[in-house]
Amino acid sequence: MLTLSSHVIIPGSELEITAIRAQGAGGQNVNKVSSAIHLRFDIKASSLPDFYKQRLLQLSDQRISKEGIIIIKAQTHRTQEKNREDALQRLKELIKKATKLTKVRRPTKATKGSQRRRMDKKTQRGKTKSLRGKPSF
To answer: Can you tell me the distance from the alpha carbon of 96 to that of 4, in angstroms, rounded to the nearest whole number?
Structure first.
């Protein structure tokens, strides 16, 4: 079970968690212990509210397949339990990131005073640069 907020909960039956062998260095232990975790979550078949589903499917993330399945592979820790917690935490962060509404930026106009100050600085800078030239006799 994964709790996103007080009223949005993903039951454990919708999460498909499998243990696989981790990649990379680790000596002899890496070849016999399945410590990495593959987490699969089907967005379309989940019990999430429609708003969450739409936002997740619109998200352009490499972990979301074309069929609408989130696949997360966790293998940073040495133990299976920590990798399971890491995968669940990453799924939670992905869903929260997708549902976070961003503020709409409204373009503002520069004030008259700021425009005047900018132009004054430009003319002052131009005068400074013109004084660097060779003197004319």
So the answer is: 8
Look up residue 69 and give its amino acid. I
- Whole-number Å distance between alpha carbons of 71 and 38: 7
Smallest Cα–Cα separation from 94: which of 41, 18, 50? 41
pTM of the model: 0.69
Residue type at 75 in one-letter notation = Q
Residue partners of 91: CB distance under 8 A and separation at least 6? 2, 15, 39, 41, 70, 72
Q: What is the pLDDT of residues 36-82, one digit of tens each?
A: 899 999 988 888 888 888 988 888 888 888 888 999 999 888 888 99
C-alpha 132/C-alpha 37 separation (Å) is 66
Contact indicator for 76, 83 with CB cutoff of 8 Å: yes
The secondary structure element, H or E, covering residue 73 is strand 69-74
Q: Which helix (H) or strand (E) holds 40?
A: strand 36-42
CATH 3.40.109.30 fits 2-99, yes or no: no
Question: What is the structure's pLDDT at 98?
Answer: 86
Q: Is 42 helix (H, G, I), strand (E, B) or coil?
A: strand
